[in-house]
Design a protein that fits this description.
The protein is α+β, with helices and mostly antiparallel strands. It folds into three domains: 10-200, Histidine kinase-like ATPase, C-terminal domain (Heat Shock Protein 90, 2-Layer Sandwich), CATH 3.30.565; 205-347, Ribosomal Protein S5, domain 2 (2-Layer Sandwich); 404-596, Ribosomal Protein S8, Chain: A, domain 1. It has 17 helices and 22 strands. The protein has helices at 10-21, 25-38, 67-72, 97-106, 156-159, 165-182, 205-213, 262-271, 311-328, 341-347, 384-398, 438-451, 475-484, 514-524, 533-548, 558-570, 589-592; strands at 43-49, 55-60, 109-115, 122-128, 131-138, 143-149, 187-192, 195-200, 221-228, 231-238, 250-254, 257-259, 284-289, 295-296, 307-308, 417-419, 425-429, 432-436, 462-472, 494-499, 502-509, 584-586. Strand 7 (187-192) and strand 8 (195-200) form a beta hairpin. Helix 1 (10-21) packs across helix 4 (97-106) and helix 6 (165-182) runs antiparallel to helix 7 (205-213). The chain is globular, with a radius of gyration of 31 Å.
């Protein structure tokens, strides 16, 4: 039998290796921005075309590279950042320039123009599909200018799996924001198809957050700060009203590097316990600073996961510090804002090291609570015959046949409807008893009422506001607004950009309250770009329906429940919403008999 194992050609091996680093345009954005930071840049520009599919350009004013270094940077296993194995475990820079550039060059056309500050002339290099084409001297500005063109042009199977421009550009913005939020002392700009999306000045962390996400977030931010021997924690969390149902503004950084951690997200969530509605997640921007030897950043190809030597202590630090800050700013009750001396002693002891015996497991004190104690019930002796009577009455009720009064022949609902404490309603429909979610039923009713209309079922008349409303937009929202502003007048809106990033609202369509306007606009800004009028109108209609739909907790009185049931019956009493969510559930009374 002939031999079957062979060495891959270099260009094939490079393309395979590139798959670990270059997954989409945003992957290249991350690597090039981090390289510019490592090069000591104070000003960085990111220029994108077609969401990065055709061009990703990063221009920085860093220290640049020599002629030899510029060529070596594109070789595999070439780096200026580590010299020995031990360096891997104390990394303070962002990435390995050679490794990233070799992978990027393998799946695109790359041009580099670079010049050192003290050099008279710079270097121009061009590489296509991992194959070196030429290197020439060039007159260029100090720093580096990377141009990555036609991503995956030589790997069409990879290119066709890229998402549409809206999705890919959303990923680009995510990476840009993560880098910009971690380096508020640098100036960043982002241009997409010749339109300025971000122009971020140097400033404080607060200024950077506000510049990225808009001035409306500033009043909600609460500072977080804790400085102990082995770790520094600082940043901001938003008040409960800044929480969202989708995971949006949740940022964790360690030593200036963004990372993901569901475990630490849980610590923040627990700090907000009792303050958020079900399904909502808090907004936060948290920065950790600690010894690089206590963390490992190389467990993920994109370095978005970080391994900590003792993550349980950091979990406790996050939860307790945030909880204390919420108390100080009167967001949650706090009995004493002064730290316990014993807690200080624990936090200021050296970071425990594994295996040397100097550490030790830190146990939180246990609190024993009698869960059965009720201060409102007086102790008394209960006679056995009383227990027997109560038991018999209970079994008679649970086994009784449900009421069979026909709702649609008898208008007396008293025997057919009952509200449960969790907001659901019990309803006898024929021979069965149903548990109803009136909120979902109402949502479907509102949706069906507007379904046949090409435009939302609104009165085109506007009501002029006595006092104009102001909506502070960030740069992303300004671009979104420009994409759909032409549709707004015919819908009853009168609004325009008054100055800088302030959107002034002078009139609203009939049916939209002033108190709903800001939330409604935030919903419209959820989508990055509307390509067609139909696409915008469909999303607008969905948001209008949501805004005018009620939740199950809004239905308290029987007369309101009756009306929803009648309207829902006119639709045929469908069991499911279009998204598959259930509107009602049949109560299995027969199953209850087996529970006793």
């Amino acid at each position: 039998m002939s031999d079957i194992i062979q060495l891959l050609p270099d260009h094939v091996a490079n393309q395979i290796a590139a798959g670990e680093v270059v997954q989409r345009p945003a992957s290249i954005v991350k690597e090039l921005l981090e390289n510019a930071i490592d090069a000591g840049a104070s000003k960085i520009e990111l220029i994108i075309r077609d969401a990065g599919k055709n061009l990703i350009q990063v221009v920085d004013d860093g220290k640049g590279m020599s002629e030899t270094d510029a060529r070596m940077a594109f070789e595999r296993h070439a780096t200026s950042k580590i010299k020995g194995t031990e360096d891997i475990f104390k990394i303070v820079t962002k990435g390995f320039r050679g490794e990233a550039l070799a992978s990027i060059a393998a799946v695109s056309q790359v041009e580099l123009r670079t010049k050192q500050n003290d050099a008279k002339i710079g270097t121009n290099i061009y590489i296509e599909g991992g194959v070196f084409q030429f290197q020439d001297p060039i007159q260029t500005a100090d720093g580096s200018n990377f141009l990555v063109k036609n991503l995956f042009y030589n790997v069409p199977a990879r290119r066709k799996f890229l998402k549409n421009n809206n999705v890919e550009f959303r990923h680009v913005i995510d990476e840009f924001q993560r880098v910009a939020l971690a380096h508020e002392n640098l100036e960043f700009s982002l241009f997409h198809d010749d339109e300025a999306v971000f122009r971020l000045r140097k400033g404080s962390q607060m200024q950077r957050i506000v510049d990225v996400f808009g001035r409306k977030l500033q009043p909600q931010l609460i500072p977080i700060k804790e400085d102990i021997i082995w770790c520094k924690l600082h940043g901001f969390v938003a008040k409960p009203e800044g929480a969202k149902k989708s995971r949006g503004e949740q940022f964790l950084f360690v030593n200036g590097r963004y990372f993901r951690s569901p475990y630490f997200n849980k610590a923040v969530q627990e700090a907000f316990e009792g303050l958020l509605l079900p399904g909502y997640v808090p907004t936060f921007f948290l920065y950790l600073e600690m010894d690089p030897e206590k963390i490992d950043v190389n467990i993920h190809p994109q370095k978005t996961e970080v391994k900590f030597e003792d993550e349980h202590l950091i979990f406790a630090l996050l939860r307790s510090t945030i909880k204390r800050s919420l108390g100080i700013y009167n967001v949650s009750p706090s009995l004493d804002f002064d730290k316990d001396p014993e807690m200080d002693a624990m936090m200021n002891r050296p970071f425990p090291s594994k295996g040397n015996g100097s550490g030790g497991v830190i146990k939180m004190p246990e609190i024993i609570v009698d869960k059965d104690y009720n201060p409102f019930i007086e102790e008394r002796n209960v006679r056995p015959e009383e227990i027997q009577n109560l038991t018999e009455m209970y079994h008679q009720n649970i086994t009784a046949e449900p009421s069979k009064i026909n709702l649609f022949e008898d208008e007396d609902f008293d025997e057919d409807l009952m509200r449960l404490p969790n907001g659901y309603w019990l309803f006898n429909k024929g021979d069965v008893t149903l548990m109803l979610d009136l909120g979902r039923m109402h949502r479907l009713i509102v949706s069906e009422n507007n379904k046949s209309a090409k435009k939302p079922n609104l009165n085109p008349n506007s009501h002029t506001l006595l006092f104009s409303l102001e909506y502070h937009m960030n740069e992303i929202e300004k671009n979104k607004y420009n994409s759909f502003k032409k549709f707004l007048p015919e819908l009853g809106f009168d609004m325009k950009i008054a100055h800088e990033s302030v959107l002034r609202i002078d009139a609203l369509p009939e049916g939209l309250k002033e108190t709903q306007a800001m939330k409604f606009l935030e919903n419209l800004f959820e989508i990055l770009e509307y390509k067609t009028e139909e696409e915008f109108m469909q999303f607008y209609l969905n948001q209008w329906n949501k805004m005018h739909s009620k939740s199950r907790f809004d239905f308290i009185y029987k007369k309101d429940a009756e009306q929803v049931i009648k309207d829902f019956t006119a639709l045929g009493f469908p069991e499911f919403l279009p998204d598959g969510k259930r509107c009602f559930y049949e109560v299995p009374f027969n199953d209850f008999k087996n529970k006793f």
